[in-house]
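Contributing new complexes? Match this layout with inosine 5'-triphosphate.
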Amino acid sequence: MPKICVVTSNTHKFDEISDVSREYGVEVEMCPGLKLEIQSDNLEDIVLKSALLAYLYLNKPILVEDAGLFINALNGFPGPYSSYVYKTLGVNGILKLMDGVTNRRACFKSAVALVVNNRVLSAQGEVCGVITTYPRGQGGFGFDPIFIPDGESRTFAEMSVSEKNKHSHRAKAIRKIFELLLNVNHNATYL
Ligand code: ITT
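Output block (do not edit by hand):
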């Protein structure tokens, strides 16, 4: 199996995916600057279309992952708009929106699409937990400093990559897709 090209410009995301890929003996490489993100409020739609476009362009195995933070008290905001909201409001903007809010439940959701040998595989992963009242930790990226997964007392930003991968939405989705890949053919859509 040739290396799988992970289409992302986010090195943290790539490190997390590459840590999981080692569990499966799958080789991955980072392919930055190729992610064409269509406008959609559906993560699965976004990754499938981005992966197909990158596959047509590069003609090699392609993996695309997209994620978002869905906050219950904000009716799922920022969800699929997490990247834009992170750049505009940032962690502190979210904390401000959550000021005085007692229901702090939130979930990270991840969607992954893998195109290989004219087959398309897709998978999703989710982790739920709570939004903190102030940022904690130096690791990770994005909203990691304000999210504590269920069953933990530390934020994702206070964990190593492999600790975060025990809980994360992304690791769950990536494990599912590598299992589909290695068990082959079931649940695959052919191009
Ligand atoms: P690429 O599109 O280049 O892959 P990105 O950082 O824009 O990288 P996403 O669109 O998947 O990645 O993520 C949207 C935003 O959601 C991201 O900028 C973060 O702010 C947030 N996010 C996603 N996954 C996260 C995680 O595991 N931990 C913290 N924040 C996350």
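Reviewers usually confirm one structural detail per submission. For this one: The radius of gyration is 16 Å.
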